[in-house]
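thought: fold this chain, then report.
action: predict
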Amino acid sequence: MSIYYRIYSIIQYFLKFFTMKRISLSLLVFLFLGFAATAQTEKGNWLVGGNLGLNTAKNDTKFSFSPSAGYFFLHNFAAGAKVNLSFTKVVDTKTTDIGIGPFARYYFGTMNIRPFADVELSFDSRKTTIAASSKTKNSNSFFIGGGLAAFINRNVAIEGLAGYKRTSFAKDPSTGGFNLSIGFQVYLSNSQVQDLKEGKL
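observation:
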């Protein structure tokens, strides 16, 4: 067997090997992106989760957590309640916000990575403490935006949410601006919720 034939055989082997690798990789990408996620957002299902935010800078710290629970009243459409908790410290000024209100969201498409539109309304109470004095005032806030939900399995999705939030006070000027958060949602069918109640999960 000549050296040229050996070289030709090796080249053919590697061409076949990498061709199969490309096909396998393409298949994996297709399965990941093309995985149908319709079961998670069907009518009658539940979603439970929350969003987390953290911002730290010199003399400025803000932490927020927003747990939520909702029900799919229609296919791809869910509504429920959300609790908003946040703590902000700027130098010697501490601000604590507690709020609760409804939210609604609509999911688009059937892929494993799915965009959604989100609308929220919150009725809040804010306590501001400066040195030894403090005061409390009420407000309401409105949020509209959208995000992406990336399903890592049939029940859990990691999501990013961004949009515009405006807060109105009774006597003080309103404030508004861009809002960004990262969180997760757990999607449960009615049977899974029942199993949780009975301690089967």
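thought: worth noting. Residues 21-36 have pLDDT under 50 and may be disordered.
final: tokens above.
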